[in-house]
Every structure is written in structure tokens, then in C-alpha cells.
Amino acid sequence: MSTERIDVPVSNFIRNIIDEDIRTGKWAGRVETRFPPEPNGYLHIGHAKAICVNFGIARDYGGVCHLRLDDTNPEKEDVEYVKSIVDAVRWLGFDWNKGGQEHLYYASDYYDKLYAFAELLIERGKAYVDSQSAEEMRMRRGSLTEPGQPSPFRDRPIEENLDLLRRMKAGEFAEGAHVLRAKIDMASPNINMRDPVIYRIRFAHHYRTGDKWCVYPMYDYTHCISDALENITHSLCTLEFEDHRPLYDWFLEQLADAAIFTRPLPQQIEFSRLNLTYVITSKRKLLQLVEGQHVEGWDDPRMPTIVGLRRRGFTPESIRLMCDRTGVTKVNSWIDFSVLEGALRDDLDDKAPRSVAVLDPLKLIIDNYPEDQSDTCSAPVHPHHAERGMRTFPLTRELWIERDDFTETPPKGFFRLFPGNKVRLRYGYVIECTGCDKDADGNVIAVRCNYFPDSRSGTEGANLYKVKGNIHWVSVEHAYRAEVRLYDRLFKEPQPDAGGRDFIEALNPESKRVVTAYLEPGAQQLHAEDRVQFERHGYFVADRVDSTPGAPVFNRITGLRDSWAKPA
Length: 568
Ligand code: ATP
Ligand code: MG
Prior knowledge:
Layout: H1 13-24, E1 32-35, H2 45-60, E2 64-69, H3 79-91, E3 97-98, E4 101-102, E5 104-106, H4 111-123, E6 127-130, H5 134-140, H6 158-169, E7 179-182, E8 197-201, E9 215-217, H7 219-229, E10 234-238, H8 245-257, E11 267-271, E12 275-276, H9 283-291, H10 306-312, H11 316-326, E13 334-335, H12 337-351, E14 354-355, E15 357-358, E16 361-366, E17 375-380, E18 390-395, E19 398-402, E20 422-425, E21 430-438, E22 444-451, E23 469-471, E24 474-475, E25 480-487, E26 512-519, E27 531-534, E28 538-542, E29 554-558
Parallel strand pairs: 1-2, 2-5, 10-11, 12-13, 14-27, 16-22, 20-23, 25-29
Antiparallel strand pairs: 3-4, 6-7, 7-8, 8-9, 15-26, 16-19, 17-18, 19-24, 20-21, 21-22, 25-26, 27-28, 28-29
The structure holds adenosine-5'-triphosphate and magnesium ion (MG).
The site of adenosine-5'-triphosphate (ATP) has 14 residues, from helix 2 and strand 10.
């Protein structure tokens, strides 16, 4: 895999297990992981964590990570989601190629084998067809404190079980009439081990296998077998699967006893999920945001989906960096959203060219600057990379400045424009404010000033002027007028869905503001997905959907500082 890393991998308990396996030769040095999303929705930042863990470990150990579409719920899955998953993993910088072989798999490709193994389990007395209703099964399941009761069908003869399963498969029975269950232990303290269902009847069209099947295997049965069929060594998943591990092992042990698989068998290892403040990572709730039109789609730049983060302007490197920095543990905790924003700033500070944008424009008129004159000012593309060259832009008599860089009555410590004060126009001249023009309602519509012709930046005279304020500007005549979308966090609260509360109420009404801004003329040359730092404002990206050649629209990714941080 080609992904370069920014940070050094930190050791973690999973890597310790793998190191030990390598030391003992358990897998003859092989490390094969897998990322197994269900194609029933768009991937989100939580999945990015699982992707970075699985693909990252495979990369660092010279192994391979399989991308497996875990598609055993025909009703909810679709090829549209498969495509978006493939794109998201690629965009994050990973691939599933090793030695020229593509390791992209579908659980639905194993349906024939899974079914054959089910018959084998019956033959070995390890599975039976249960004909109780769902309600009867529930009543006999027991509870955390009480053991379950065996089904009256538990001791059906093997031949009868085989016959029923074949007829289930042939479509002779209605949905819910029978299920196939593993014969394990109805008294197990672990409810997952109380004869879990292996197959259920569903007359549903599957996006890949069509109408071939009317019995579909359950997740717990499919997952471990898929891992074993693909020779996965370490099956990494989130903590909620910890209680399923005995079942994972049970199925594989049965099939190893039946000489289907050889030992060692894949090992399931659980780690804690990523919880990010101000973010929701449940597909169901994200769907609610889309369907309720609280956002403009799955790729709305405020969505924590990979497509949303990409459109917002987050780089794959920043997402990987956040995943690395937050580590892998067994303890469920919340990561502050600022960790992701910090990773973005750390990534873009070095990469992003600088530019100027006036987001809330107010006209500045330099009264003593001749109307027909213009100066070509220049500034570095990047302050720490002289080799990236200079950018140039004209200075003219009328400029756009930020409305809040001027005030008639300055508060203490205000060093920018107010009558009588001097500031520097970045990369240009020192000016002295002389007053302002107002409309009939008393609103300031233009600021007046004079400039000092010998104060130009980069000339000797510049040092004669000591000013505390330094403001940005663009020429009225030359500015590129563009739509800029100022995004902020989608929720006002750090844990919008905590305690089962209605997260819709926690939506931030100011999560999107659209302004018409005036940009440095060069910004017009940026292409979709080009990122830039607008000086003093933060990081922006040319929107990948709405930008057209020669007419980019910009999204704010994040500010230069964490504006949500609590004052110290
Ligand atoms: P949802 O519950 O929102 O539907 P899911 O976790 O069931 O999502 P899957 O497609 O089954 O979605 O997930 C694929 C993999 O991603 C699983 O191995 C799962 O453990 C992992 N994953 C999902 N969310 C997170 C998260 N927040 N942090 C880390 N891993 C996650
Ligand atoms: Mg899942």
C-alpha cells in the first residue's frame, strides 16, 4: 500500500498481540485483516477509524486488508452504497491489492458455502430447525438472570432437520415458519450462546444474488466463516462484539472439527469505537438528518460521512492523523472534535497556499491615491516555503476590507481602523484613517483614509512607520466575487444524542451561513477540491460539487484557531 504516514505508529494492544504472534510464528508471519461494512448506508468518521486501524495495521506489517461487503440483509442493501464504500476507502488512501491480487469480497459470494456448512452442522448434530414462533422463542430465551428453556423441536432427528432446511431453501415455507438454530447451550450465561439463529426465511430480492435465495444467513454465522474462508488472521472489531466472540469461536471450532478449516483459526479482537463530540455516528440517525432535510444530503459538508467530510475540505491525511493520534484502546471515551480540526490544521498549514478573502466587505477609499494609479503588490504563496514563489495582486484607490476591521469608537486594545489611527494594508502601504461615509440611516458605507507613499512593504521607508494593526484587503476593481459557505458545527452540544434525547433539538441554527465575498484575484484559478488558507480567516476548499471551471465556490473547513474552546 502506498499511503505515507505523517505520524509514527504508536504501539497498542492489538499490535502487541500481532508482535507476539510473529514471535511465536503462529501465522508464519502473515497479517491479514479485513474491513467489513454493510452496504446499507454511507461510511462515516467512525468507520474511518475502523478503516485506519485495519488497513493501517496490514500496511505496517506488510500484510493486506480485505474490503468485504457484509451483505446479508437483502432489504437494506444497495449497489449505490457499495460504490460509495469503495470510493471512501480509496479516497482515505488505502487499497486491497497485494501482489497484483485484489482482495475485494462480498459475503453474498459465500452463500453456497454457508448453506453447505449449515447442512454439515445439522449432520454433526450441531444445528436444528426450530418451528416455534418468534414470540415462543423469545419467551423461552430466558434473561440475564434466568437460563433459557430448550425448544420442543431441539431434538428433531437429523434427517428431519435436513429435510426441513432443504424445503426452507426451496421456498416451501412462509417467512417466520422455521429458522435454523445452532445447538449450543440454552443455559449459557451468555445469551448469544443460547442456540442463536443461523438462517431465517426472507422472500427478499438481493442486490447481487437476485431471487436465488429465500433463506439468508445471520451476521454472527456469516462473519466468522467469511473471515476463515479469506484466511484472515486478526479480525478487528468494535467492543460491542465482545459478547459475540464465544459464538465466533464456536462456529469456527465446529467447522475445524469437521475438517473444513485448519487451525489456527482467525482471532477476533475488539477495540473501542470512536465517539467524536458534536458528531453523530449512527447510520440510522444520519438518515434521519437527511430525510428530515436538516442537511442537504449525505455529502452535505456538515455531515460526518466520508463524502461530507471530503466535500467540507478535510484531507485524507488529516483524518488518518486524527485516527492515529486517538490511538486504539479498550476503553470507550469521547474524542473532542477539535482533535480532528487540529489534525486538519497541522496537515494544511504546510500544504495550503495563502490567499486573501474579504468575507464581510466594507469599502475603503484612499483619498490621496490617484484614481488611475495601481500598484502591484506581492506576497509569498507560503510564508515558510520561499521556493513556492510569490503571488501578486493590484492595489488601487478603492479596496474592500472587513467590516469589523473598522470602528468609529474603538474599545480598549483595538488596533485596527478608527479615525486618527494608522494601520498597515498587508503587503501594501501604511494608511491613516480620516473618517467614514454613512447612509441616511447612519450605517457606515465607506471608510476614508490617506496613504503614505514612502511606507510600502518591502521598501526601506516601511520601517519608518510603527503600527500595531495589519489588515487584509482586495482591490474593488480586481476582486473575484464568489460565494463562500461558512460552515460551523452541526450541533450546539458535545453529545447531541446522549441519554436517548432528541438530537434534532441540539442542531446548531448557525451551522451554515452563505456570504458573497471578495477574493484575491488569483483565487479564481483554484480548482474543485483545491485547498487554501485565507489569511486571518482559516482553511477553505473549492467546493467539489458546485465549483465550475473558472468559478469556484468556497467552503470554510475550519478557522485558524478553535473558536469553540472554552476560555482558559
Ligand atoms: P451503524 O450501527 O451506524 O449502522 P455499523 O457499525 O453497524 O454502523 P457497519 O457497516 O457494520 O456499520 O460497520 C463496519 C465496521 O465499522 C464494523 O466493524 C464496525 O465495528 C466499524 N465501526 C462502525 N462505527 C464505528 C466507530 N464509531 N468507531 C470504530 N469503528 C466503527
Ligand atoms: Mg454493523
